[in-house]
Amino acid sequence: MRLDGFGLFVNDMATMVRFYRDVLGFEIKESENAGNVYLVKDGTLFLLFRRKDFEKMTSAKYEYVKGNNGHFEIALYVDTFEEVDLEYEKAIAHGAVSVLAPTTEPWGQRTCYIADPEGNLVEIGSWNKPYEEKDK
After folding, report:
1. Domains in the chain, ordered, with CATH?
2. Strand-pair category, 44-50 with 5-10
3. For site-directed labelling of 115, which of 19, 21, 67, 129 has its Cα 20 to 30 A away?
């Protein structure tokens, strides 16, 4: 068994698709009006599944967190500290909610957190070197 990807259950598919595609650079595979949408970022599958369609498929109702939630984060890496700041400003300008402005942490990573339009946390961080070298 291998990890194929991960997904989010969403209310407003079109808004979420536009955010992940246009703001964070995910490659879209379907129309933003589909019941489930496959996006790809750096070879990783990212699925958006409309909540009401999932509930219909499973014949069940689910409880969803409202507002910013801390159940998980999506972590994105950029090569430089400057890119952290630039991507943060770009995301905020396009409707993301600031959770933590760019900060250089005591352990040497520059990081920030935003929330997508439905409150899911997204981290943008860097060790100020290309991803392939970050563990060296």
Report:
1. 5-58 (3.10.180.10), 73-133 (3.10.180.10)
2. parallel
3. 129
